[in-house]
Specification:
This protein has 257 residues and is α/β, with parallel strands linked by helices. The chain has 5 helices and 13 strands. It has a 9-stranded mixed beta sheet, with helices on both faces. A hairpin with a 4-residue loop joins β7 and β8. The two termini are 35 Å apart.
Length: 257
């Protein structure tokens, strides 16, 4: 199934980032932070959006607080429109990060509900997510061609190869569960057969795309024609970030976004 996402190209997938197109980030945490960033392509011949993965990274736990400093840099470097960040186990650090980018980061908590994919409260930064429905949706998205990796399995770097491996470690089973009235319900359950951190980060990136604020903000100024409001983008060397600290509060560049 994952073969559906590959688009053969000589360019490394990291070089596919463009200043045009909204970007989204998913972050899974189990000590280390696993990050997946995707960008929307609006110029497909069929007129449909396509999401191309432009960055994947492991931020190791040894960095401590600097782990979230790295996330802050990625938010700025890729001008992330919206991010879904696993809330646990380091909830305090995750909350500080969400407050630093208020309105652009949701903290994900699990829900056992299977009737609704998610609920999101922007004031508290909380997003309650159905794990099963999200992985079901990601699988459907991959089958439909929504996601893209630029390159081939032979040209992937170690990080993206690890991402593919983690996704391959996810298995969907069905099991019977008794309801309170005594009837039996067959439900889908996703289980891991090995490391799965990047699979969750990818799934959270998908939700960030679904929760996103409006893609384009239309503004009208007196005496001027209507047009798209563009946000200022800050570009930095992605290798130079040691010692950066997550600010307590970051002034939003675009209050309309």
């Amino acid at each position: 199934i994952l073969s559906n996402v590959f688009v053969p190209t000589e360019e490394p997938y990291q070089h596919m980032y463009s200043a045009k197109g909204d970007t989204y980030m998913g972050v899974d945490q189990k000590g280390d932070l696993h990050v997946v960033i995707a960008q929307v392509m609006h110029d497909e011949p069929n007129g449909k959006d396509v999401l191309r993965i432009i960055h994947a990274e492991v931020i190791h736990r040894q960095l401590g607080q600097d782990s979230w400093a790295r996330l802050a840099q990625l938010m700025r470097h890729y001008n992330i429109r919206f991010c879904v960040h696993d809330a646990l186990p380091n909830e305090h650090n995750a909350q500080e990060f969400a407050e630093a980018f208020k309105g652009r980061v949701a903290l994900k908590y699990d829900s056992g509900e299977r009737a609704k994919l998610f609920t999101y409260d922007e004031q508290s930064n909380k997003l309650i997510l159905s794990r099963t429905m999200n992985f079901d949706g990601l699988l459907d998205d991959i089958k439909s061609g929504l996601w893209r990796f630029y390159g081939t399995r032979d040209t992937l770097d170690q990080t993206l190869s690890e991402l593919i491996s983690h996704c391959s470690n996810m298995k969907r089973d069905e099991e019977e569960r008794k309801r309170r009235d005594g009837s039996v319900q067959v439900v889908g359950v996703w289980r891991k057969t090995g490391p799965d951190d990047f699979a969750h980060a990818w799934a959270y990136c998908r939700v960030a795309y679904l929760v996103r604020p409006a893609n384009r903000v239309q503004i009208t100024l007196i005496g001027q024609t209507r047009g798209e409001h563009e946000e200022q983008v800050e570009y930095v060397d992605s290798k130079v970030w040691d010692g950066l600290k997550v600010p307590k509060k970051i002034k939003r560049r675009n209050k309309l976004g």
